[in-house]
Amino acid sequence: MSAEWVCVQRQQDECRRYLDQFKVLDHPLKQSTITVLESRGTRSSKVPAAANGISHSSCNSAAVSTAALSLDPLNIAFDGSDPLSQFAKQQGTSLGKDPLSRMAAEMESTLPVVKSNLPGCRSLLGNKAKEPTSLLELDLIEPWAARRGAILNKYTTSEKLSIVTSFLTGGESIKPQTTMSEKVKYRLEQLDDFEEGSVRQMLDLSQQEYVVKIEQLNHELVQAWNQDQRVKALKIAIQCSKLLSDTSVIQFYPSKFVLITDILDIFGRLVYERLRTKADYVHAGTREMTSLPENFTPEMVPESAKETCQNWFYKIASIRELLPRLYVEMAILRCYSFLAQDEFSLALRRLTKMIRGIGDPLVAIYARCYLCRVGMSLTFDRTYISENLDDILMIYHTIFNGGIRSEIARHRITLNGYASLYLPALDWILQGVAILTTDNQLDDIVQRCKEKKNPALLLQSMMQSFRSDFIASRATHFVQILSTISVEGLSRGQLFRLLGSILSHTPPPMEQRLSVLSSAMKTFSSLGNVEEFMQCAEMWAQYTSQHFGLKEVDAFLGSVLQQMSPNRIYEQHYHELQVIVDKIVSNAQDVHGLLALDNFLPLLDLFQKDSIKLEVCKNILTSYRNATSCDSAIINDPVVTNALMYISRVLNDSVNALTGEDERRQISGLICHFIRKVDYGRDFEQQLAFYVEARSVLSNLDSALSTLIHSVNRLATSTRRIVKGLHTQKTAAFVKACAAYCFITIPSIIDVRTRMELYLQSGQVALLNVCLQHADSCFEAAISLIPEVPRMVENDGKVQSTEGFIKTFIVNLLSTLVIVPDNPTQGVLYLLRLLLEVVPKYPFEPLSDVISCIYLHVLDFLSVAAQEVYPYHIVNVISNDELYGSDPKFIAEINELCCTVCDKLLQHLKVLLESNALRAQTQLALDLLLKIITGADLSVDKMFTLTVNLWNLAVKNRSVIEPKQLQTVVVYTEHLAQVTQLETQRQSLWLLLEKMKSRI
């Protein structure tokens, strides 16, 4: 044995960490600053004032300015401020603005201000920005661009399509024209060629191929325009317009309208920009050409530009067919602004009357839709929109006449499918009608529509287009209408579903809410069609849960159960049922009361498919967590507890070996939140009974079991607090039951590190409650698991070593073992001997400093164990200082263990020497020296010699450690020599101090 360790008595203040103490002049987390002198080589940009109050002033190039810069490299790179602060500081300049802000600033500086006294107008870009000049700019209607994608996605077809054009087979030859007469002659030839029927028809195109061809036409139009082929561009626009007269694939017509009008919009924009270019004029007093301002008047337009504009309208007026003539003129309608001030209103009303010549009601309503689209982007006038609505109502009956019915039968679509084709156009027109319209005027429109035969289509479009507050304030009236009208062409359930969606976001007046719900439920419950009922219930579930109490919600769920139970029809409506449950739970004002409803769990039992049931239960617990995470509400109702336990069991049973880590973590978090919410107050026995039941149900989740163990330990600690540490027979039996619960539950956990931590915590709680046998069992089990800890583990995708965990765990364990009394049947310091036996079985790195650090902490433990009075105790627990009373045999056992541990450290020193790890060897030598002079008797020759040798080793390799470290050890040794009460120890320390100073 290299060492002969004999523990000495010491004062408790010797345990203070003198070696870690040093004087600081500022908070360690405060940023350090340096002063930089600005010269020619430094940046010229201004640096913001530092926190210390130094101010900066401008000076000439010869002056010197100072700036406090952070040592952070990023701060230095940005002249003393972080990147975000630097960018924020630049917002005052145009270069510092983000692209959108810069564009807005440019528009603000170039666009003139147009004053408007119309109600609802608002400034688009602040006080100096352009004010609205048309209905669309009021931002009171959903833009067409937002509707475009939905229409293209909804109205599709698998039938073959055809397209008639002359511009997709390689284009036309381009002849050079030099004189005006040649140019006119060539254009006339182009028009003659068009009239003579050079167009070709492409058949059997799929929908995707058709869209590609339309895009090619779009490209051809732009290319022809850029090549100065205006007639060709016009011909393309005409041919595209003619495609809108084709209803051979009628279910695709709304999407075709979107694609074609996109091309017409581009054509109209090209013509308008061309005319603006030709309208450049020489401003009075200058020689430079000036472009027309945004708010130009016809008086500002040169005659040449007006003549060109009139020529365009003349060309379009010469188109023989009505439909292309209408569409092309509507496309360039904006160009009337070059001719006359009030031409828009006249042209819009004229075109409205011309559309009456279109015989097909579907083609006509989309032509009116395009007219309203264009007109609403040009003017505030709404007269033509009302006239279009009047015309629609006048011919509305033709949608359902015999000719149309035979036509849709030929297309093999239903009347409902045909009626839905009108909705995009009708919605847009009705939204235009509703802009800046009073409620009385809207009431008149509702009355007129209600009086029509089969008004369901009109009512659906009105509910989609009119303001939601208008609909909500008349909810009772609308329910009555929808319950009584003829719904041919649509379904009553579809109308009630839409009404329920509106009322969910905008509730009716308080006095109408219950009657609206009762009437609506009575109507769609008697539809006789389960599918329509579920579609309505899916929407009305949110309205019911948001605005009514538990009684109405329970009645609503009962209606759903009544419809779903016969013939297992619920198996066909899992999605609707899931949506209903999600809306009811997420909007519930009293989640606990909802879970206790008579019809809630029976509704949950309808989900027989495991995957659907799992999703529903997860959503319920998620909503419950969101609703209760920020309050102190607890659960103590057995019905609610059982309901949540049932849901938790479903989630727990879904976890298996194939469950992903994220899914497992989500489920565990939801269940753990539920467990922590259950609280029976002072009824600790019922609380423990709940934890016992939960353990039997939640056996697949480590996190849930860990939460249960923590909760039981907290229960035992609360019991001790209530009895103030003086257990009665009843409370003693209860805390033993808690300790037994933890001890038999921990082995069910898979992760070995979690088990070790829980064993240690449970042992500490058992020790606190004077359950010594249970505490010993927990500590022994924790120690025995050390060899099972894997060397490397994966944490968040990163592989990490577990050596740090082992070190932290053992330090925590040793601090607890100080006050754990020895079991008389096991011998002196049995648990420490077991620890020293199993620690080497863990696969440490060959040169790891963790094992030596552990042994150093063991020496600390043994030094404290040898003291007459331990630094801390637990009430009613007799620790080894009282149990042994510093018995010589006990102290001898401690000394022997100290010698053993010291020998292990010396062996590790030798291994480090052989591996040439000088820094680690020197540091270990200093650490061992400090342990020896603190807790060992230096009057023993072997220990004194060992101490001197350790010091000599450290001095020899002083270049690899911190320069002040040796001096700090000397200061600490001098302190120990001054405070030590034992004379022999004091003399040995002074002698050692002389030898140490002689080697520095």
UniProtKB/TrEMBL annotation:
Name of the protein this chain belongs to: VPS35 endosomal protein-sorting factor-like
Similarity remark: Belongs to the VPS35L family.
One cellular component (GO) term of this entry: endosome
Top-level taxonomy: Eukaryota, Metazoa, Ecdysozoa, Arthropoda, Hexapoda
Location(s) in or outside the cell: Endosome
InterPro entries: VPS35L (IPR029705)
Organism: Anopheles epiroticus
Swiss-Prot/TrEMBL GO biological process terms: endocytic recycling; protein transport
Keywords annotated in UniProt: Endosome, Protein transport, Transport
Keyword Transport in record: yes
